[in-house]
Amino acid sequence: MSKNIQAIRGMNDCLPSQTPVWQKVESVLRKVVASYGYSEIRMPIVESTELFKRSIGEVTDIVEKEMYTFDDRNGDSLTLRPEGTASCVRAGNQHGLIYNQIQRLWYMGPMFRHERPQKGRYRQFHQFGVETFGLNGPDIDAEVIAMTARFWREFGIADKVTLELNSLGSSEDRAAHREALVAFLQANTDKLDDDCLRRMETNPLRVLDSKNPEVQAMLAGAPRLPDYLSEESEQHFSQLCERLDVLGIQYRVNERLVRGLDYYNRTVFEWVTDCLGSQGTVCAGGRYDGLVAELGGKGSPAVGFAMGLERLVLILETLGLTEDIRGAVDAYVIVQGDSALLKAPVIVEQIRNALPDCRIQLNCGGGNFKKQFKKADQSGAELAIIIGDDEVQNNQVTLKYLRTQQEQTTISIDSVTAELENALQR
Ligand code: ATP
Ligand code: MG
After folding, report:
1. Which atom of ligand 1 is nearest the CA belonging to 307?
2. What is the reported pTM?
3. Are residues 280 and 308 in contact, defined by beta-carbon separation less than 8 angstroms?
4. Which of 52, 251, 316, 327 is such that its CA lies 20 to 30 A from the CA of 381?
5. What residue's CA is closest to ligand 1, atom 9?
């Protein structure tokens, strides 16, 4: 026998038993983002490698270690997208959606990063993301954060996630801070590990991100970015905080929050949870006013976020919030007898006409009563619709409730849609 071919490590199938949860999550996200008047954009999964190098930054974990990059048959270097923002800006520039315009966009889909697979960290994972363009003020920062807060309320996990917030200032603010930080790090090189030494040269802000406890202890005395914020940046941040306060959205200002991508300025935020062990960030974003121009467009302010859907699903599962999500079938039709075999499909089509949202599976392949009941049970249906020769003769069907103690009833075909509607609302 030939060997079974397996999926690539870290790239998961989403099986029929799991898709109902994903569909539910996706539909809640779509509903919420629609309630803010945002439009969907769909970008290709493969882009030219240059796009990510230029936007995410050469000296970032993603570009240095995590990208799936390959040459296509023409010898062009292509990359499976590791995130959506760069592609979205590229598409916006290419199609003239950004310059001098306001855009509020969202996307959802797979992203690829060559990381060590573990709980909450995969090589193909899925993000839901929002990007807005053309708005400078803290009002839009507050809007996208309010949207994320609404997601958690909708999913019933608002008390399981906390918001961390910081301002990185403008590029000038950062340059001034960077200079002071490099001087400080240079005076403390004996306490830096190799990774930090390298980052000190290439991207010193990312030393602040180090997970090394010794480095963290030394950083207690480092120049603080907040001390270098210009008045405009400070005002932007305090006005954002004020808006969040008025909206009743709690946050913790975390000066160390810098994010792993180069393009952010001013607002950065992360929603973190302690339900997931070390993969605790479910959603992360911020402002990236320089990126549109960096990618060749005429400048435009921008702010957005991306949410990791696997992590969100894991939180819901950990908290037992996925148990009530229904599978693919609401009602299963059991058929007995020759005339019923012929008539049942017609009846079921009529029910589908009247109740298009009801998911009805018709038994195929015959089988005795017991066998069909077993299939009805396995389908996850709430109820069985039994159509036998007697029922066909009398223009009736029998409803049997599979998950409750309710008595089975035989009713006329005319009243079946009302009865089904009723039964499925419960
Ligand atoms: P982390 O610090 O966990 O590596 P990140 O800063 O690299 O996250 P972003 O690039 O900001 O992550 O992506 C936004 C969100 O996408 C993350 O907060 C997380 O929920 C999710 N995410 C990122 N990488 C992965 C991955 N490899 N597997 C699953 N989800 C991921
Ligand atoms: Mg990462």
Report:
1. 15
2. 0.91
3. no
4. 316
5. 284
Mutate which of 63, 112, 125 for ligand 1? The one with the most ligand atoms within 8 Å of its CB, which is 125
C-beta of residue 271 within 8 angstroms of C-beta of residue 284: yes
DSSP letter, residue 261 = S
Q: What is the pLDDT of residues 163-207, one digit of tens each?
A: 999 999 998 898 898 899 999 999 999 999 998 998 888 888 788
Best of 279, 287, 288, 314 for a ligand 1 pocket test (most atoms within 8 Å of beta carbon): 279
Q: Are 83 and 306 in contact (CB under 8 A)?
A: yes
Are 308 and 113 within 8 A, CB to CB?
Answer: no
- Nearest to residue 84, comparing CAs of 259, 313, 285, 310? 285
Which helix (H) or strand (E) segment is 369 a member of? helix 369-378
Calculate the CA dihedral of residues 209, 212, 215, 217 and round it to 10 degrees.
100
Span 389-419, pLDDT tens digits: 999 999 999 999 999 999 999 999 888 888 8
Give the count of beta carbons closer than 10 Å to the beta carbon of residue 143.
18
70 CA to middle of ligand 2, Å? 20
* Residue 111 to residues 16, 66, 163, Cα–Cα distance (Å): 21, 11, 24
181: Cβ contacts below 8 Å, ≥ 6 apart: 204, 205, 207, 208, 222, 223
Q: Which residues contact 133 (CB under 8 A, 6 or more apart)?
A: 92, 97, 98, 101, 102, 103, 105, 292, 300, 301, 302
**How far is it, in rounded angstroms, from Cα 204 to Cα 26?**
38
> Which among 349, 346, 283 is positioned nearest to 147, based on CA atoms?
283
- Among 109, 107, 89, smallest CA distance to 99 is for 89
Contact 266, 170 (CB under 8 A): yes
124 membership: H or E segment, kind and range: strand 124-133
Atom of ligand 1 nearest to the CA of 120: 29
Q: What does the alpha-carbon distance between residue 241 and residue 385 come to, in Å, rounded to a whole number?
A: 56
What CA–CA distance (Å, rounded) separates 158 from 82? 28
> Which of 199, 188, 265 has its CA nearest to residue 223?
188
**What's the mean pLDDT when you consider all of the chain?**
94
